[in-house]
Amino acid sequence: xxxxxxxxxxxxxxxxxxxxxxxxxxxxxxxxxxxxxxxxxxxxxxxxxxxxxxxxxxxxxxxxxxxxxxxxxxxxxxxxxxxxxxxxxxxxxxxxxxxxxxxxxxxxxxxxxxxxxxxxxxxxxxxxxxxxxxxxxxxx
Length: 140
Hints:
Helices cover 69% and strands 0% of the residues. It is mainly α. The longest helix has 28 residues, at 39-66. The radius of gyration is 16 Å and the shape is globular. This is chorismate mutase.
């Protein structure tokens, strides 16, 4: 997300890109369906991921206002977005694989919080993601 935030800051692009968000959501729901997940139950998880990503980007931009980062250049946005799309597919594959053994449980929270780490991702963001994950179901 640092590369996305940096690219957008360098090119004076807004963090929120509703067209891109719609593409991400549509692609994720289509991938979820291929994997046997209920696309409707996946949608809140994808929205939570998008919101977390935007929060991370805003936090980077705020940090750079106070202390610009010297000597670092973001990778091209298209390259990073392709990488994120691949990671999203991997996440959905892992979710589907885990759900075949049974639904996620509130007791999985500790491991989730320990595993999901990203600079500028805060505990409330993680809670939103985890709550959305608990609701994901296999298609009937």
